[in-house]
Each structure stands twice: as structure tokens, then as C-alpha cells.
Amino acid sequence: MPRPEQAAKTTVRALQLVTGVASVRPRRRIATQLNRLRPHAGSGSVRDLLEHAYG
Q1: Which of 16, 26, 34, 46 could form a disulfide with 8 if both were Cys (CB 3.0 to 4.6 A apart)?
Q2: Cα–Cα dist 2/11, whole Å
Q3: What angle do CA 54, 47, 34 make, to 5 degrees?
Q4: Contact 49, 14 (CB under 8 A)
């Protein structure tokens, strides 16, 4: 599996885990990861992740 695909999969899981967490820090870290993945938006799983994260 290409690295952006794996990163997208891991980030989806992170988004699931931070639901309900009051701290801002996990969301900031995920935002950083989402920005790093933007150049790979042509990949199906990355595109799906970005659409899910940003609505």
C-alpha cells in the first residue's frame, strides 16, 4: 500500500478516536496531517478522508 493511502487510513482512525475528546491538541495534530495529505488528494482514500474531515 502506498504511504499516502496508509496515512489516510491511520488518520481516519485517529479522527474516530478523538471524537468526544475535549483537548484541542489531538485535533491540531490531525489538522497538520490533513494538510500534509492534501497534495495526494488524487488518491481515493486520501480524497475520501479530506471530504469526511472537511465536509
Answers
A1: 46
A2: 14
A3: 55
A4: no
The residue to which cell 486520501 is assigned? 46
How does pLDDT run along the chain (55 residues), one tens digit per residue? 569 999 999 999 999 999 899 999 999 999 999 999 999 999 999 999 999 999 8
Alpha helices in 1-55 (DSSP H): 3-18, 25-37, 44-54
Cα separation values, 53 from 2, 18, Å: 21, 12
Which one, of 51, 44, 36, lies nearest residue 2 by Cα?
44
> For residue 46, what are the contacts with CB-CB under 8 A and spacing of at least 6?
4, 5, 7, 8, 37, 40
Q: Give which of 7, 1, 3 is closest to 30, Cα–Cα.
A: 7
